Amino acid sequence: MLSKVLNGVHEAIGNTPMIRLSRLTDGVEGNIFAKLEYLNPGFSKKDRAALQIIEEAERAGKLNPGQTVIELTSGNAGTGMAMVCAVKGYHFIAVMSKGNSYERARMIRALGAEVILVNQAPGSPEGQVSGADLAMVEEETRKLTEERNAFRADQFNLWGNVHAHEFYTGEEMWQQTDGEIDIFLDFVGSAGTFVGCARALRKHKKNIRCYIVEPETAPYLANKPILNPHHKIQGGGYCLPLPFLEGEQIDGYLTVSDNEVIEVCRKLAKEEGIFAGFSSGANVAAALKLLNGSEKGANIVLTINDSGLKYLSTDLYKDEA
Fold first, then answer.
1. The pTM is what?
2. Active-site residue 279, yes or no?
């Protein structure tokens, strides 16, 4: 059923569809339920966090009319912030590493925002953003926040990020699946989605198992050796402490390789018609590992985080027929 006419694109955020990945799981015992967050108007799940952070700041009097908003981003949070700020009348500054795909910076600029690109750390491979790169972006963001007297829409520390998924995404998951959920998993960036959805789902069913997904070469959160912090899975795996993470919400850790992620992304597109980015492929690759291993027969819910259109300059879909 279509809703009434909306008063701004920000009101179109949320209520995304849930799809059973029946083709990728053909012959596998169990189900993967994928929530299509790339169908938000900014093409990612970060639209939710952007809206919640801004509106919580407005209600608390921490963001004043006409004030500049600033945040570091790998692209998706910046796109969401640029979109929300555009309709609410705030100037937005996105601070990004040059290692992120350039489509994101172009989209953020098109939405009227200012984009500051920060050089990668010495030794960082082009297009692979590490914790060292993000630390440089953080330093620039702090400096600009003070210089511009800006409101810092800090996705790593402001609880609006978690609330967006606790109050909305996780509740939608429960309703859409009629509560038939055994497992939730997430490739973590800020950990807002993981913590928010875990909290929401466990309000309904305490024994839902929640797994964190990390790059195979950088299982930092699992407290395992970091073999190589430079991986291709943009949007997470930064090998940095995440303030939102709560130990009691984590039932286990999973890892996926760059090649596994790329292979699953391409299968998602060709077999399920879902054109998604790296972190979405990480989620689905991890879910398939569970169904083929320790969690055979389970119902797994996850998010498809953003669109493959944001990665056309990378090798994710390079030379695909």
1. 0.94
2. yes
